[in-house]
Amino acid sequence: MEWQQIASDMAIAADLTSTASNGQLDASDLRERFTSAMDNDLDTPTAITALVELSDQIREASGSSDVSAAQQTLRELGNILGLSLAA
User: Fold this and answer.
1) What is the average pLDDT score of the chain?
2) Where exactly are the structural domains of the chain?
3) Which candidate, 15, 21, 70, 81, has a CA 20 to 30 Å from the CA of 53?
């Protein structure tokens, strides 16, 4: 997958409308994976993989769960890598 497509998918996930019918999407384990990767000598490929997985989970859950906190996590962690995912 090309970097432009990955960035586009993350931007879409960050801007999806969230619903609250099935609870809230928990992004804590992906936040931990991202943080651990960055703490491991800036393991950027693993950190990006965590962001892609979070983006995928947000897109999958957006129709049935409140993804707003997960979207905020995606924006916050993406910002660490210089990605601007508009709110």
Assistant:
1) 91
2) 25-87
3) 21
